[in-house]
Specification:
The protein is an alpha/beta fold and about 475 residues long. It folds into two domains: about 190 residues, Lyase, Ornithine Decarboxylase, Chain A, domain 1 (Beta Barrel); about 180 residues, Alpha-Beta Barrel (TIM Barrel), CATH 3.20.20.10. About 30% of the residues lie in helices and about 25% in strands. It contains twelve helices and 24 strands. The strands form four sheets. Strands 4, 17, 18, 19, 20, 21, 22, 23 and 24 form a nine-stranded mixed β-sheet that branches. Helix 2 runs parallel beside helix 9 and helix 8 runs parallel beside helix 9. The N terminus is likely disordered. Bound molecules: pyridoxal-5'-phosphate. The site of pyridoxal-5'-phosphate has 17 residues, from helix 10.
Length: about 475
């Protein structure tokens, strides 16, 4: 159907209200492969399938809401990153995006390393058999207990985030008779977010030690003197949901500048540089992320060129994608509870989850897309806002999108690209139970994180 055939508008409205949205897609039943996991499609009845299983069957078996994760897609993306960077670089999956023991095993099997930033993430990684030397420990306020646990376990690196932590980690390692490999996280004054980056951002944030004013150089100076530490490199993470590589270019230039100063002052060439994560994914059809091999090529060229300019040996590069690996691999499956048209505005579609399973829309004004999943429809598109069941008017899952005008209670709808920062940021607000994560692969489904129960809630409430 051509676009002009649609009177692009919501039911009961002649004009579209203000909002950030494009015209409805030509075919609302189509599933843009950019935003959906690799094995997602529709079966002969028009039902969305993933890994060969219909979502109607998944809903019946596991209930809604549920995060449905395409295991084959996860492994494909992890492997693509690993292959793109090759054996001279390391890919650390950022566990905070979504971590479970199944995910840890997949990462291990696909040859990736893992970033953790709390004792809880560390214990999850270790309990699923990730070798400690392949784990990096991050965070701006690791407790002494967490540090001791990480050092004892033998984590491959701890990323130091403050002057106090430099001393703290050195002291703990030394008291255990150990020498801990560390990177020092610096802020280079580059802030990247989606399509723009700022090369002169204020280093006004809680993470890292500012390069400006010589603080980062001073941190390296102190760390190099401490017996408990082996300084292996410099770490920089510039933002999130980044599409433009020029922010990394400026960051790499500044990090390599510091490596050069360290060489000149101390006569040591630090062997590693970590450029962080933050690579963007497609949440809607308007986003155009880059492939891992393009990113690997760009980053490697940037670092190599900068090092040649500074006459340094090119250090071993590492990167830390979280969202770019897990984000596109999952969608959230909801059941529609109510459909409420507001004249001249839009139609509010209430689902059985909300901000407790996806806080990103409320927190970051994030954009998502949505599709009718339990059937197809030829009805005219209507402008909708998909909202949750929480007692909060900001409880929005998808701010502006189009769904077929015959949408009704009982329909299943799916929100793609919810693999990252949805389950991991999920809450119990309103004592709503956190949804399960169901992994599908080759026609089989299994729960990798089970649905929370009322017993789980009551167990923590000790009266
Ligand atoms: C959050 C974070 C990442 C991962 O970011 P994504 O946007 O998920 O790729 C990587 N490294 C550090 C230090 C982070 O804080």
């Amino acid at each position: 159907m051509s676009r002009s055939a649609h009177p692009a508008g919501p039911r009961h409205a002649d004009v579209l209200p203000e909002g950030h949205y494009s015209a409805p897609a030509d075919d609302l039943n189509a599933l843009d492969p950019k935003v959906w996991a690799h094995t997602v499609g529709r079966d002969a009845d028009g039902v969305v399938t993933v890994g060969g299983i219909a979502v109607t069957q998944l809903a019946e078996e596991y209930g809604t809401p549920a995060y449905i994760l395409d295991e084959a897609d996860f492994r494909d993306r992890a492997r693509a990153w690993r292959t793109a960077f090759g054996n001279d670089a390391d890919v650390f999956y950022a566990g905070k995006a979504f971590l479970s023991r199944a995910v840890v095993r997949w990462l291990h099997e696909e040859g990736l390393n893992l970033d953790v930033c709390s004792g809880g993430e560390l214990v999850t990684a270790l309990s699923a058999g990730m070798p400690a030397e392949r784990i990096a420990f991050h965070g701006n306020n690791k407790s002494p207990e967490e540090i001791e646990r990480a050092v004892r376990a033998g984590v491959g690196r701890i990323v130091l985030d403050s002057f106090q932590e430099i001393v703290r980690v050195a002291h703990i390692a030394q008291s255990l008779g150990m020498r801990q490999r560390v990177q020092i996280r610096i802020t280079v004054g580059v802030e990247a977010h989606t399509h723009e980056f700022i090369a002169t951002a204020h280093e006004d944030q809680k993470f890292g030690i500012p390069l400006a004013g010589g603080q980062a150089a001073e941190a390296v100076r102190r760390a190099l003197q401490l017996d408990g530490l082996e300084v292996i490199g410099i770490h920089s993470h510039i933002g999130s949901q980044i599409f433009d590589m020029s922010g990394f270019e400026v960051a790499a230039h500044r990090v390599v500048g510091l490596l050069r100063d360290i060489r000149d002052e101390h006569g040591v060439e630090l062997p590693e540089i970590d450029l962080g994560g933050g690579l963007g994914i497609a949440y809607t059809s308007d986003d155009d992320p880059r492939e891992p091999h393009e990113i690997a090529k760009a980053l490697t060229e940037i670092v190599t060129r900068e090092c040649e300019g500074a006459r340094l040996r090119t250090p071993r590069i590492s990167v830390e994608p979280g969202r770019a690996i897990v984000g596109p691999t999952a969608f959230t499956l909801y059941e529609v509870g109510t459909v409420k048209p507001l004249d001249g505005l839009r139609t509010y579609v209430s689902v059985d989850g909300g901000m407790s399973d996806n806080i990103r829309t409320a927190l970051y004004d994030a954009e998502y897309s949505v599709a009718l999943a339990s059937r197809t429809s030829d009805a005219e598109p209507m402008l909708v806002r998909v909202v949750g069941k929480h007692c909060e008017s900001g409880d929005i899952v998808v701010k502006d999108a189009f769904l077929p005008g015959d949408l009704a209670p009982g329909d299943l709808i799916a929100v793609p690209a919810t693999g990252a920062y949805c389950r991991s940021m999920a809450s119990n607000y309103n004592h709503v139970l956190r949804p399960p994560v169901v992994a599908v692969r080759d026609g089989a489904a299994r729960v990798i994180v089970r649905r929370e129960t009322e017993d789980d809630l009551l167990r923590l409430d000790v009266g």
